[in-house]
Amino acid sequence: MNANRDRNAETPDPQARQAACDLAIEALGYIAGDPELLARFLAMTGLDPGAIRAAAAEPDFLLGVLEYVCNEERLLVAFATHADIGPEEIETAKQALAGADWEPDVP
């Protein structure tokens, strides 16, 4: 029973997960707004540009977007500045999506 309590303590609440999804979608928009960034992102993911909208409904894809941003320091700093947040908040959002069996509210 303690294992369940520990696992639940590590699971972010739905609002935190939704905020993480919103941030990932904002990051995706930032990437899409720069043709060079978008080309690299698409090459790395193997996605067709037309498949991005459907992929953005998947928590694992959104987690991948945040991982991509976090793995390139220049992009991490630029996006954090754009979003007016600290880079550590992107890492926090990434952790909120990691391991979450949950569907985001994506329009």
What's this, in brief?
The protein is an all-alpha fold. The chain has one domain. Helices cover about 75% and strands about 0% of the residues.
If you had to describe this structure to a student in words, what would you say it looks like?
The structure is a single chain. This protein has helices at residues 2-10, 14-32, 35-45, 52-55, 59-71, 73-83, 87-97. With 107 residues, the chain is mainly alpha-helical. Residues 1-9 and 100-107 have low confidence and may be disordered. The longest helix has 19 residues, at 14-32. It starts with a helix and ends in a 10-residue tail after the last helix. α2 (14-32) packs across α5 (59-71). The chain is globular. Helices cover 73% and strands 0% of the residues. It has one domain (16-97). 23% of the residues are buried.
Please describe the topology of this protein.
Blueprint: H1 2-10, H2 14-32, H3 35-45, H4 52-55, H5 59-71, H6 73-83, H7 87-97
Give the amount of beta strand, in percent. Answer: under 5%
Main sheet properties: none
Order of helices and strands: HHHHHHH
Q: What's the structural domain tally?
A: 1
